[in-house]
Amino acid sequence: MSPSQIIHKVGAWLDHRLGLSGPLIEAAQHPVPRSSASWWYVFGSATFAVMVLQFLTGLCLATVYAPSADRAWQSLIYLNYDQPLGWFIRALHGWGSNFMVGLVCIHMAQVFLFGAHKYPRELTWLAGVVLLLATLGMAFTGQVLRFDQDAYWGLGIGAAIAGRTPFIGGRIVKMILGGPIIAGETLSRFFTLHVFVIPGLLISFVGLHLFLVLRLGINEWPMPGRIVRRETYLAEYHRMVSTDGEPFFPYAAQKDLVFIGLIIAALIVTAAVMGPIGPNGEPDPAIIQTVPRPDFFFLWLFSAFALLPPWTETFLMLTGPVVAIGLLFAIPFISGTGEKSYRRRPFSVMILVLVFMTIGILIYLGTYSPWSPHMEAWSGAPTPVEYVKGRTPLELQGAILIQAKQCRNCHSLGGQGGMRGPALDETATRLTPDQIVRQIVQGGGNMPAYGKNLSPAEVNAIVAFLATMHPAHQPPAHNAARPALARVDQR
Amino acid sequence: MIVRRRAAVAAVFALSLLAGCDRLPGKPKESQRPLSPAQVKSFDVLYTQNCAGCHGAAGNFGAATELANPAYQALVDDATLSRIIRQGVPATAMPSFAQSAGGYLTDAQIAILIDGMRARWKSGPPLKDAPPYAAAPGDPAQGAQVFARSCASCHGPDGKGGARAPGSIVDRSYLMLVSDQALRTLVIAGRRDLGHPDWRQYPPGQPLTAQQVADVVAWLAAKRPRFAPGTWQSVSTK
Predict the structure, then answer these.
(1) I need a surface site. Which of A60, A382, B131, B209 has the fewest CB within 10 A?
(2) Which residues in chain A have Cβ-Cβ distances shorter than 8 Å to B34?
């Protein structure tokens, strides 16, 4: 008996008892509108495929990972450096999460643009929103389980936000962290969430989501002018499928399968080239030489929170997410019928572009976080050599003080240093020496006053150095009244 | 048969992939293993993070003392170098780096920095007839003559700068920001990177004696304004 005959026999034996083949074949061959077998309709299945891959790699990682505060970091280091191919599984899982968040967002944008959230598919959309939140929940809890400095401080910030809730803030923090501080129990909680609770949620809601897609049929390609009406839509869709439909498998599924293959290949290449994400330094609160940053899918929140005016912080941090999630849930009820085509829904397209642009800009800002000083620039970013050559002794002392007084943590020189304040490379073209003195001593704009932290000799040296900061072809700023004032002084 | 051959090809391919996994660009290298700041043992990392800002990426062309100058490395002994790194230099911009003095570096890391500087920048036989690193203050009046003979041709007759050395070395703000020892170190070791001669190079054939070095430093130091401790007064560069 050949292998294929054995498989056939075992399958027949099982099916005789389970009786599943009929419904499965029926589901696979359910008719779909010919127009929906498009390359635009592949993102949902790709997200699902990546999720399955996440389950598999996560299973591998869970066999080694130690969910306790004192051993988690060590177990990640072990995976990265000692366990054969441990780094690759970590890389697949880490980049897989990035892929999954990205695909979910693209899938959601496509669904919204094509009006697939409209009648009768409102519930599919609601389940999708839950899946988006669960995916982001997986991303956040996963970032916490990668228990390094980013995770430690990210968790601290999350708890601090939760702690701002009026009246019950303290209790919420205690519930999240398993105590008043990040300690042994904290990681057990996030392990439970990441491995049991949220995956359970994901599986059940993916089930509901797919069931609804099968039951209600895949959304047809939106045509401008084809209006969705509650009274007529179901009959119209039924007619469309019966006259111009094709079986899902293999007609539409082949595109899904090709795209899944491409995505998985891209993921494998990314993981192999980029390697595992972290862990960076040991999560030890006594180590203060650290620049914690959230993973990219939370960078936009990080930027938004950093840039909010302080007096709006508590209110917006607590109400913002509730309102945003509420709006996502409300979308199919706000626009449940009418035009489906994005060509006839300019307002929806504008909202989508606005949301994506805002998030994109916030992620960009979060990557560079220009509001954040670069705390090691003063000792680690050398004064550019061209600013050292040909300088007088006093100017050189000024250059040393620019480093030693940590000016460069906020001001860059030669492209290195903080971005909080303006770059110092062309200061002298903007400010006269007198104005530089005033700015340093009194501060202003975003800059603190340093008058009390610098001796007059130090100010003189810094100003002497900064007064040389202009390109050779551009004269320094000067006070036109200076010669006249000098004559007045002489009298 | 064809199926089997395909399976064999696939297996060989998969095995070769697995074998190549050790050389994939994403595999973390041993050197990337994260260390806590106190565990860093690499001179390059320690120097780049703590010293390069002021002393230059390669120990020269920084605004502060040229550490890569062999004359400087020959002049200063390990104990002095260690003390300066550990405790800094009071009243100057050199901060203290030892954990015991509020810095971030352990004693072992400071030793690594000193060893590394010696290995990289100390070269050639020890200097003969060099003035000692430190000495008692000299005589300012004698120092004025030393200045006129050995320094004035570049720094100008009164030290306020000349064509070959722009900028005043008797500027009161400048003198208030540097220690006597820094002036002495500069006179003896020079700054090879910025073209300042060491004690034996100028005028040619007439190296400075230990007494002359002490005198000229005393002459410079005497031009530094003195204020009662704790009071700052206006210092004009005019």
Answers:
(1) B209
(2) 77, 148, 279-282
Choosing among B1, B17, B18, B27, which should be mutated to test the A contact, i.e. which has the most A CBs within 10 A?
Answer: B27
**Shortest distance, CA A32 to any CA of chain B (angstroms):** 35
CB < 8 Å to A382, chain B: 52-53, 56-57, 62
Contact present, A412 and A418 (Cβ < 8 Å): yes
The verdict on B109 and B155 lying in the same domain is no
Instruction: Tell me, yes or no, whether B166 and B205 share the same domain.
Output: yes
Contact assignment for B63 to A403 by CB distance below 8 Å: yes
The answer to the question of residue B131 being in a domain is no
Mean pLDDT over A320-330 rounds to 95
Q: Residues B54, B92: one domain?
A: yes
Do residues A470 and A429 touch, judged by C-beta distance below 8 A?
A: yes
pLDDT at B19: 63
Q: Which residues of chain A have a CB within 8 Å of the CB of B63?
A: 383, 388, 391, 396-397, 399-400, 403
From B7's Cα to the closest Cα of chain A, the distance in A is 14
Q: Are residues B113 and B149 in the same domain?
A: no
Check CB contact under 8 Å for B33 and A81: yes
For residue A239, pLDDT over 50 is answered with yes
Distance from CA of A487 to the nearest CA of B (A): 15
What CATH number has the domain bearing residue B84? 1.10.760.10
In a domain, B30, yes or no: no
From the number of C-beta atoms within 10 Å of its C-beta (0-12, 13-18, 19+), residue A271 rates as buried
* Surface of B (95-114) touching A: CB under 8 A: 95, 104
pLDDT mean over A320-327: 95
In a domain, B26, yes or no: no
Using DSSP, state whether B64 is helix, strand or coil: coil
If you count them, how many residues does chain A have? 491
Hey, what domains does chain A have and what are their CATH numbers? 29-368 (1.20.810.10), 377-490 (1.10.760.10)
What is the band of A382 on the pLDDT scale with cuts at 50, 70, 90? very high
- Torsion sign over Cα B184, B187, B189, B195: positive
- Whether pLDDT at A459 is above 90: yes
Contact status of B128 with chain A (Cβ, < 8 Å): no
Domain presence at residue B236 = no
Distances in Å between the Cα of B144 and the Cα atoms of A23, B148, B187, B206 are: 106, 6, 14, 17
Are residue B105 and residue B144 in the same domain, yes or no? no
User: In this predicted structure, what is the pLDDT of residue B2?
Assistant: 66
Residue B21 confidence (pLDDT): 63
Q: What is the dihedral of CA A295, A298, A299, A305, to 10 degrees?
A: -140
| Cα–Cα separations (whole angstroms), residue A362 to A109, A357, A369 | 18, 8, 9
CA distance A297 to chain B (A): 21
Can you give the residue range of the structural domain that contains B49?
39-121
Enumerate the residues of chain A whose CB falls inside 8 A of the CB of residue B109. Answer: none
Averaged pLDDT, B146-174: 92
Same domain, B56 and B115: yes
B164 and B217 fall within a common domain: yes
Residues of A whose CB is below 8 A from B168 = 392-394
Contact call for residues A422 and A412 (beta carbons, < 8 A):
no
User: Count of domains in chain B?
Assistant: 2
